[in-house]
Fold this sequence. Notes:
Layout: H1 2-5, E1 9-12, H2 16-21, E2 28-29, E3 48-51, H3 56-68, E4 74-75
Parallel strand pairs: 1-2, 1-3, 3-4
Amino acid sequence: MERLRAGALLVDVRDADEFAEARVAGALYVGLPDIEAQIAKLPRDRDVLLFSRSGRRSGLAQDVLVDCLGYSRVGLPLEKAELRPATYFKQF
């Protein structure tokens, strides 16, 4: 949570139906299938923190951003416990 306080962008890469069902306050939604098409929404000058339900899609998104698109400030730092209950409207 410290990186969020320092200005990192939290990005939700879950499916649209998962996002519609439950959202994390302050997170930008960019579903994994759309990550390349919506690249303009993701800054290169600050940390980008990715999350998904299990971590698999956020890991794939990290691979795309780092390996294919040249991002260097991308991470998977959040544990599900950190998203509950204060910022998460509905638990996974």
